[in-house]
Amino acid sequence: MIEPASAIRTEPEIAAPDAPARHSVHLGLFGRTPPFTSRQRRVFTIATTAGFFDQYDRALLSIALKQIQAGLKIAESQIGTMLAVIRIGYILSLLLTPLADVFGRRRLLLYTVVGYTIFTGLSAIAPGEKTFVLYQILARAFAGAEAAVALVILAEEVDAAHRGWAIGLLGGISSAGYGLAAIVFAFINVMPYGWRGLYAIALVPLALLIPLRRVLPESARFEKEQSEGTGSVKVWEPLVQLYSAYPKRLLMMLSVMFLASMGGNAAGFLFPKFLQEAHGWTPGNVSSLFLFGGALSVMGSIVAGRLSDRLGRRVMGTTFLFVAPLLTIWMYTAPGFTIVPVWILEVFFDIAAGTIMSAYSAEMFPTSYRSTAGSALAVAGTTGGAIGLFLEGVLFNFTGSHARSVCYLTVFWLIAPAIMWFFPETSGRELEEISPETGHHAAL
User: Fold this and answer.
1) How buried is residue 442: exposed, middle or buried, by Cβ count under 10 Å (0-12/13-18/19+)?
2) Contacts 24+ apart (CB under 8 A), 26-29
3) Residue 275's pLDDT band (boundaries 50, 70, 90)?
4) Torsions phi, psi of 55, nearest 5?
5) Strand 10-12 relative to strand 23-25: parallel, antiparallel, unpaired?
6) Could you read off the pLDDT of 352-407 as tens digits, one per residue?
7) Does the pLDDT of residue 430 top 50, yes or no?
8) How many angstroms separate the CA atoms of 321 and 416, rounded?
9) Backbone angles phi, psi at 189, to 5 degrees
């Protein structure tokens, strides 16, 4: 749990007389931050706040799926299709994120917070399945853009030596939003309006807009690019550059995101429902697992960030991405309460792999279309996840079992680490060195 302000301890870093002061802040369960300047610390805090509520919304659809299904009278055979359609919203984020590469990261982040919050709140009053799906699609369009821009701002501001550490810590703290969802889900049977009341809580981020407008700085790299006149001036330019400058690199990353999501997305979404129906767990049992077990699992993000800075993104990413699907198969076949430690390990490795992919998404492309690249990769993951959820529904009609269907899908997931092994190494390198803004690009 994050310590209160009065308990936060800082550790000064030795710096040159003309260098900005740096401090490493202790965050309780999440350990210490990298040695941040005051500006970096402010950017990090805002990025984690945005990620926290995004994770809360994502968690609700999964953890309260059984109750949402009952409330909206959704047929069992339609669950996979509904989840797949909702994830299409992340594809729409590709229409928004290029604006961050043209008009600035700060402005778009503020607008996406508003859009995401409004449509998540409207989900609480959706009268039926179709309107609920529509609101969720629009919420995810804004949430996808928000997450991409927050990650880019952080990656562009922190030091190269600590970039993996910072991104891993961002993922770990943002995942606490999942913990909040787990806590409130335990009270779903007494919460006013049930699952609808849980979605109403998502309106809280609107209260953050006033302080965000005052303290959120623009990315220094974006400002430098604009002052030099090398940035994009038309909204379609980032998309054109993305698909023409580093085609091999882009294809590999899109493939990994697509296959991993195709093979693993259904496993995460259906697991709370699986626990309640196959193992007889109550909502309170599910909440306890996601709260306490999840607190251990989110450490995967922090561990992955630190290890990838020290041992390399490619080696650690390939390892985590290979082990996660194997643990998923074990998780859906484990008997009794042995499912608990297996689930914790699976989520640990899955989060760790996702953290390294997040780092790659912010590192492998130039400033002029870095936000667009992050969104394009999210779209690939969304598309793969949607197809995976659709295939799960098809497989369920043949197998009669969600568990078996999920296990069959992991074959696609296992292809992803083989592709990641050929990624270039990015740890410890400046962004301009990894992906220069020139017409003479490397083959990868």
Assistant:
1) exposed
2) 27/2, 27/3, 27/169, 27/173, 28/1, 28/2, 28/3, 29/1, 29/2, 29/295
3) confident
4) -65, -35
5) antiparallel
6) 999 999 889 888 888 777 877 877 887 888 788 888 988 888 898 888 888 899 99
7) yes
8) 7
9) -80, -15
Angle at the Cα of 81 from the Cα atoms of 114 and 320, rounded to 5 degrees: 75
pLDDT in tens, 108-137: 888 888 888 889 889 888 888 889 999 999
For the chain, which residues make up each domain, given as ranges? 33-434
Nearest to 27 by CA among 244, 143, 176, 211: 176
Q: Do residues 300 and 347 touch, judged by C-beta distance below 8 A?
A: yes
In three-state form (DSSP H/G/I as H, E/B as E, the rest C), the secondary structure along 244-273 is: HHCHHHHHHHHHHHHHHHHHHHHHHHHHHH
Selection from 261, 346, 363 nearest residue 309 by Cα: 363
pLDDT tens, position by position, 37-81: 888 888 888 788 777 777 787 778 877 888 888 888 887 777 777
- Cα Rg of the chain, angstroms: 21
Please say whether the dihedral angle defined by the alpha carbons of residues 227, 229, 234 and 238, taken in this order, is positive or negative.
Answer: negative
Q: What fold does the segment set 33-434 form as a domain?
A: Growth Hormone; Chain: A; (1.20.1250)
Q: What are the distances in angstroms from CA 185 to CA 1, 345, 373?
A: 19, 22, 34
CB-based contact 309:161 (threshold 8 Å): yes
Q: Give the SS3 label for residue 135.
A: helix
End-to-end Cα spacing for the chain:
41
For the chain, give the mean pLDDT: 80
Q: How many helices (H) and strands (E) does the chain have?
A: 23, 2
Q: Cα 212–2–6 angle (5° rounding)? A: 85
Please tell me the distance from the alpha carbon of residue 42 to that of residue 356, in angstroms, as a whole number: 23
If we measure between CA atoms, which residue out of 432, 286, 296 comes closest to residue 366? Answer: 432
53 secondary structure, DSSP code:
H
How do residues 207-243 score in pLDDT, each as one tens digit?
A: 665 566 667 777 777 777 766 655 555 556 666 777 7
pTM, entire model? 0.75
CB-based contacts of 35, cutoff 8 Å, min separation 6: 13, 22, 23, 24, 162
